[in-house]
Amino acid sequence: MAVLQLALDLMQTGRAVPIARESVAGGADWLEVGTPLIKSEGAESIRTLRREFPGVKIVADTKTMDVGSLEVEIVAKAGADIVTVLGLSDNSTIEEAVSAARKYGTEIMVDMINVPDKVRRSKEVEAMGVSYVCLHMGIDQQMRGEDPPIDILKRIVSETSLPVAVAGGITAETAGMYVEAGASVIIVGGGIMKTADITAATAAVKAAMSGAIVDTGLSKKYGEDELFKAFSKVSTCNISDAFHKRGVMIGITPRIVSGQRMAGRALTVQTVNGDWAKPVEAIDRAQKGDVIVIDAGGSPVAVWGELASHSAVMMGVAGVVIDGAIRDIDDIKAMSFPAFSRSVAPNAGEPKGYGGIGMEISVGGQMIRTGDWIIGDESGIVVVPKEKAVEVANRALDVHERENRTREEITRGSTLSKVNELSKWEPVR
After folding, report:
1. Is 224-390 a domain of CATH 3.60.120.10?
2. Is 3.20.20.70 the CATH classification of the domain at 3-209?
3. What is the pLDDT of residues 230-279, one digit of tens each?
4. Pairing of strands 361-363, 366-368
């Protein structure tokens, strides 16, 4: 029977302990003191978990790359039962870690993250005496929508005698297929910790590991063909956080009804001085679900109104963004067409036909190309370059889901400051 390992990838021991307690109640077998927790709180985080859970196996995810003997000694004395060493490390480091593990009564798990030939390396470390290998898809790889390495897992299971752990974006929906493929240890982090009910989420993963079909929708990673669905689930605030505050348009105001959101690929338009010919012509060029983005040079004369909006709705256009003026706001809101503009004015210009469609433009301080993603809501507009869209969408969903646990802890009586231990993490001066 495969075991469930909860990855406590947090920065605060004070948050890790109650989460671990709830997860063990739901069926978690092993507890992993995650790399962020060890780096932020040191070996004391391992000691705390050891004292709190004397009968539970503790994994110290040190990801050791050098001085294998010393790092194993540190965490073994703190109470770790298993210590991770990177498969990319030198053979001497792994051999030293194995020797120290035998001395202190612990075991070594080799993490295969970014190892080019994971099957060959698994055979090599097996000969060195390690106890486990971990087939680990890193978070950054997950966010790029890479597929789980099921075939590699099956080969390692068939070509070595080592128990194989798997980690990286595993959820209740996917845990079962890893067990079926031969995994001995299922490592889950966000798929449990990004929920308000840790115990129920853990139980769902355990049920999935036993063959149950579970559908939570949590921690799903989206690909290129699912971007509209992904961006529709998150706010511009989530995207800004995930995209390191890049892509935010400045000075463009939402002209939408409460609760409305917009997401779609950009079709760019350039025009000047209230000339609405190219903006309107772009409606005929747009694909269903596109957002028409107009660089009108900030002109105070409207280049878009009710009739353009009605035409856009009939063509399936997802919305319009204008670095310039718009009019007929009451009518546009009545038809629930998402519109964003720098200003509002009653007067329109004349259709002279200057400018163009499809070129790179600048709107609200952001460079935009046709095909880039435009996401808008009541907080504003964010632009995501098409090359980054999959990664940013998945990272934004991760931000959105992680807020679930923070919200739950606040509901239970904490505060945002206390949850994040803000004073502790202020820069040392």
Report:
1. no
2. yes
3. 999 999 999 999 999 999 999 999 999 999 999 999 999 999 989 999 99
4. antiparallel
